[in-house]
Amino acid sequence: MKLTPQLLCVTALAVAVTAGASTAAAATGPVASQRVDGVITAAGSTCTWTDATTSANPPSTLTIDRATINSSLSCTGGASATLNNSPALTFDDAAGTATSDLIDITVKQSIVTCSYRATGVGWTRDGSTRTYLNQAFTASKSSGSFLCPGSITAEPGSASLSFR
């Protein structure tokens, strides 16, 4: 049973954020529509969501609506996932970084259900775009089967968030 790829996907998609490397240039481009798409790849599996709504446009502080993530979230490899909170993000536009408050996610693979929480996860803006790449982070198990790993780790750059 491969739980780790799907757990990493969902955890990163939930948008826990405190960036590492910085980019000095301010983001430019068309006016944003308060939407965000996400993708993460881990151990050959990919999880994605599209068209999730946000309460504002970056660089303003915003919340990503969990219901709109959950409505389009899909993972390869037979897992299902549910984001249990609506993460709040704050941005440091000059540094090209953002910070989230909490990620709380539940993943089900076959008959095994695992829940994980992560705080202080980092994302760094990709150049002058509104796409952010994750920094390495670890999410700790908050509940679930004894078959669930006690924590999961996402590698740097394995996820992206694209605000539009």
Main attributes of the structure:
164 residues; nine-stranded antiparallel β-sheet; five-stranded antiparallel β-sheet; globular
Report on this structure.
The longest helix has 10 residues, at 4-13. The protein has two helices and 14 strands, in the order H-E-E-E-H-E-E-E-E-E-E-E-E-E-E-E. 9% of the residues lie in helices and 45% in strands. By secondary structure, it is mainly β. The strands form two sheets. A nine-stranded antiparallel sheet has the order 3-6-7-10-11-14-1-2-4. It starts with a helix and ends with a strand.
Tell me roughly what share of residues is in helical segments.
under 10%
**Span between N and C termini?**
36 Å
Inertia-based shape: globular
Class inferred from helices and paired strands: mainly beta
Q: Give start-end ranges of low-pLDDT stretches.
A: 1-27
Oligomer, anyone?
single chain
Strand order of the largest sheet: 3-6-7-10-11-14-1-2-4
Tell me the layout of helices and strands.
Elements: H1 4-13, E1 35-42, E2 45-53, E3 62-63, H2 66-70, E4 74-75, E5 79-83, E6 88-92, E7 97-100, E8 103-109, E9 112-118, E10 123-125, E11 131-134, E12 137-144, E13 151-154, E14 159-163
Antiparallel strand pairs: 1-2, 1-14, 2-4, 3-6, 5-8, 6-7, 7-10, 8-9, 9-12, 10-11, 11-14, 12-13
